[in-house]
Specification:
Blueprint lengths: L2 H8 L8 E6 L6 H12 L5 E6 L8 H7 L1 H9 L4 E5 L1 H19 L10 E5 L1
Helix pairs in contact: 3-5, 4-5
Length: about 120
């Protein structure tokens, strides 16, 4: 799920603000991407990296992180930001439900009002 985003980050030559929410099973699974993502952060190709580990003790999912950043995400949607989602269809559904809750709470409109700003590649 992360491979397309790594390519996009690599091509971010204009240093456009990109914030990522990455869900992995365990912290050791991050090792595959750590060096490259840290390089993107250092080179300002990635502005912020939020990590969620679903199979660690806390069982944190991307949706939990999105809820914590709900007000910010709602403002980002209102400001025409693009949200890109890649991963399983089950994860996609849960993320969209979370985004819908956030959008209704802070923007008084369903996430469907922002459908042109949601891009996904889910399987």
């Amino acid at each position: 799920g992360i491979a397309p985003f790594l390519g996009m980050l690599d091509e971010n030559k204009k240093h456009i603000q990109i914030e990522a929410y990455l869900g992995l099973r365990t912290e050791p699974s991050f090792r595959l991407y750590k060096k490259q993502l840290e390089g993107f952060l250092k080179d300002k190709k990635l502005s912020l990296l939020n990590l969620a580990y679903s199979q660690q003790d806390e069982h944190i999912y991307v949706q939990h992180l999105l809820k914590l950043d709900g007000k910010y995400l709602a403002k980002s949607l209102a400001d025409q930001s693009i949200i890109m989602i890649c991963g399983s269809l089950a994860m996609y559904q849960e993320v969209m439900e979370t985004l819908d809750t956030i959008s209704l709470e802070f923007n008084n409109s369903p996430i469907s009002a922002y459908s042109a700003q949601i891009k996904s590649d889910c399987y």
